[in-house]
Write a structure and sequence with these properties.
bacterial flagellum biogenesis; Flagellar hook capping protein; 31% helix; cell projection; FlgD; flagellum; SH3 type barrels
């Protein structure tokens, strides 16, 4: 028996009006293991362990110690990040009144005197005339020679190097 496929209607593959499709939900996996996840794994491990051979107490103590170490490292990392942010603020504040060399928004190397600092984002912004320069864009610092204080009646100008 042969079937003539030229007479078979082809069903559409696109959804028709009135048909509701749900978008696929993408789940991003956790990149870090936190204390809660660790405890959940430990409780699950204890829950499903073989009663005839329970978990060794030294193994349990080792896992508990790992949890404590992980929590201490997490706290230490946070303290280090806060310390670094404070160091950036102190370093940027010391630049006020100094001549600095930096790369401006056009990619040119420029020199100017620091007027002020802004702490809006993670990295302090150094204000030099009309330029707003991230602290990490400063390439060099030159100490101002005594007696070369700029005239307060003229605005700070930047010069290209």
């Amino acid at each position: 028996m042969t079937i003539d496929t030229s007479q078979v209607p082809i069903m559409p593959t696109t959804p028709q009006a009135g048909v509701h499709t749900t978008p696929a939900v993408t789940r991003t996996p956790k990149q870090e293991m936190d204390g809660e996840m660790f405890l959940n794994l430990l409780v699950t491990q204890l829950k499903y362990q073989d009663p005839s051979s329970p978990m060794d107490t030294t193994e349990m103590m080792a896992q508990t110690t790992q949890l404590a170490s992980m929590e201490q490292l997490t706290a230490l990392t946070k303290v280090n990040q806060e310390s670094f942010a404070l160091q950036m603020r102190v370093a940027s504040a010391a630049l006020i009144g100094q001549d600095v060399t930096f790369t401006n928004s056009h990619g040119d190397t420029t020199t100017g005197r620091v007027d002020s600092i802004r702490y809006d984002g993670e990295v302090p912004t150094v204000i030099i005339g009309d330029e707003h320069v991230p602290l990490n864009s400063i390439a060099g610092i030159t100490a101002v020679t005594p007696g070369t204080t700029p005239d307060p009646s003229t605005p700070n100008q930047t010069t290209q190097a």
